[in-house]
C-alpha cells in the first residue's frame, strides 16, 4: 500500500500543538524507527544542531523516547500513546485531538513496519513522566506498583486523578503498596471506585523512598517523580523477577497472604 501523504499527518500533528519543524521531525522518527540525531536530521532536512534541539523538546513533551549507548538515539512514541497523552490533558482544541485520532490508521501505514521501541526508554521532565504513565495504560495485565501517593499527587495534582479514572475505564486493575501516610489512607478509601487493591506498610519501612515502580506486561517502569525522571525497561525476565519481589512485599504488608502474585 502506498504511504499516505505526509502533509496530512503533518497537519494532524500541527493541530495538536506541534510546529512545522517539530511535526517533520516526529514523522522522520516514526518512519525511521530508532535512529541517531544525524540520521533523523538528514531525513527531516535540518542541521544536526537544530534537529537535536527539536528532538530534546519533543522528548520532554512525551512524543519521543530516548536511549543512549555511546551516543543518543531517539524513536517516536506510537501515535496511539500520543493520542492517550493528548486526551489526558485539558486541551481546548478538542477537535484537533479528534482529527489526530482519526488519522491513526494513516500513521500506522506511514510508520516503519520494522519499528520497535528500544528495550530501555528514558523520559525526562513532567511531560516525559506523564508519557511513561501513559504507557502503563496499554497494559494487558494487572499492574503491580510500589508508589508514594504523597509524591505523585503533589507533583502531578491535575494528571493523577484523571489517570486513576482512565485506568479504571480501561479495565486495568492495580495492586499497590503505599507508605502509611494520611494521604495514602485517604486514597485507599477509594480503592473500589478506582479499581485498585492497596496495602499500607509502615512509613519507616520506606523511609526516604521516593522511587516508585510499576510492573505490567513484560515491562517495569521506574519513576523518580521529584526529579522528573522515568525509565521503562522491557524484559520478561526483569518483569518476572520484580513480580517475585513485589509478591514478597505484598505478603509482608498488613492483610497479606501466602498467595503468589503472577
Radius of gyration: 19 Å
Number of helices: 12
Q: Using the coordinates shown, work out and report the CATH topology of the largest domain.
A: Endonuclease, Chain A
> How many domains, in number, for the residues?
2
Unreliable residue stretches: 256-260
Describe the overall structure.
By secondary structure, this protein is of the alpha+beta class. The protein folds into two domains: 105 residues, Winged helix-like DNA-binding domain superfamily/Winged helix DNA-binding domain (Arc Repressor Mutant, subunit A); 133 residues, 2-Layer Sandwich (Endonuclease, Chain A), CATH 3.30.870. It has twelve helices and ten strands. The strands form two sheets. A seven-stranded mixed sheet has the order 4-10-9-8-5-6-7. It is elongated, with a radius of gyration of 19 Å.
Amino acid at each position: 500500500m502506498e504511504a499516505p501523504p505526509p502533509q496530512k499527518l503533518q497537519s494532524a500533528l500541527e493541530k495538536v500543538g506541534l510546529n512545522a519543524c517539530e511535526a517533520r521531525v516526529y514523522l522522520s522518527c516514526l518512519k525511521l524507527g530508532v535512529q541517531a540525531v544525524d540520521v533523523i536530521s538528514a531525513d527531516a532536512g535540518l542541521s544536526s544542531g537544530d534537529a537535536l534541539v527539536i528532538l530534546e523538546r519533543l522528548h520532554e513533551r512525551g512524543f519521543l523516547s530516548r536511549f543512549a549507548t555511546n551516543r543518543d538515539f531517539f524513536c517516536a512514541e506510537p501515535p496511539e500513546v500520543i493520542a492517550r497523552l493528548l486526551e489526558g490533558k485539558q486541551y481546548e482544541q478538542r477537535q484537533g485531538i479528534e482529527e489526530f485520532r482519526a488519522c491513526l490508521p494513516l500513521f500506522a501505514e506511514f510508520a516503519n513496519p520494522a519499528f520497535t521501541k528500544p528495550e530501555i526508554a528514558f523520559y525526562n521532565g513532567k511531560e516525559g513522566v506523564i508519557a511513561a504513565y501513559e504507557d502503563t495504560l496499554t497494559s494487558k495485565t494487572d499492574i503491580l506498583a510500589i508508589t508514594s501517593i504523597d509524591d505523585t499527587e503533589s507533583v502531578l495534582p491535575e494528571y493523577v486523578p484523571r489517570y486513576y479514572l482512565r485506568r479504571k475505564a480501561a479495565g486495568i486493575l492495580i495492586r499497590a503498596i503505599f507508605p502509611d501516610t494520611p494521604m495514602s489512607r485517604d486514597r485507599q478509601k477509594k480503592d473500589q471506585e478506582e479499581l485498585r487493591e492497596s496495602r499500607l506498610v509502615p512509613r519507616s519501612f520506606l523511609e526516604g523512598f521516593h522511587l516508585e515502580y510499576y510492573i505490567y506486561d513484560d515491562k517495569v517502569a521506574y519513576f523518580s517523580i521529584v526529579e522528573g525522571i522515568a525509565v521503562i525497561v522491557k524484559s520478561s525476565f526483569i518483569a518476572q523477577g520484580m513480580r517475585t519481589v513485589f509478591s514478597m512485599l505484598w505478603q509482608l504488608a498488613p492483610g497479606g497472604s501466602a498467595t503468589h502474585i503472577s
